[in-house]
Amino acid sequence: MEVSSSLYLAVLYGTFLSLLLGYGSLGCLEEEKVGLLQLKASINHPNGTALSSWGGEVGDCCRWENVTCDNKTNRVNQLSLSYIRLDGGLGNWSLNASLLLPFQQLQILDLSDNHLTGIQGILRLKKLRVLNLDLNWLTTIPILSALPSLKVLDLSYNLINSSQLQGLKYLSRLEVLNLKSNSLMGGIPTIIGTLRYLKSLSLGFNHLNGSLSMEGEWLGF
Hints:
By secondary structure, the chain is an alpha/beta fold. The protein has a single domain (about 30-220), classed as Ribonuclease Inhibitor (Leucine-rich repeat, LRR (right-handed beta-alpha superhelix), Alpha-Beta Horseshoe). It contains 3 helices and 12 strands, in the order H-H-E-E-H-E-E-E-E-E-E-E-E-E-E. The longest helix has 19 residues, at about 5-25. It starts with a helix and ends with a strand.
């Protein structure tokens, strides 16, 4: 049976498209690879040597240390960068939030224990569910208004005072909040009582008094 040229081209095109969809996503995206290298430069400023495997012989950034990618999309969905800068003996560090813009599928970000003094700009990560910033030198809460999916926020062991907590009002889906060992003083901030989905709260090792009425599990005070 003869096959018309138009049908043949259609089949050929369909086969090519299937191959493209099936194999075109192998390895990490180039924009995310570039983004990781820029983030590495920031972490190592001015003369650090952390994350030496990033940009080395392994070209696929999904195989780099401290990076996890989604198995289907090969998009970066987790960055585990705890103690990276501190381990290199570097001083305080301020992160430019724009460095994280390439990672739009990022769900877990761990920047704990890095002498982080601040995050400049807005963290625009719509998929982020877990943000760990504990054991740093933060005196203010980063701008979190563009984190609609955030469920877990760890700000323990920083230098945040009660006046800085208004930024929490944007976190409508927050379930776990850890503010242990900061510089909170006076009455328990009422903003915490507006977090309707909160299940776990830690306020220990601060200088707070009074009570707060809300649903959920209470931890740390």
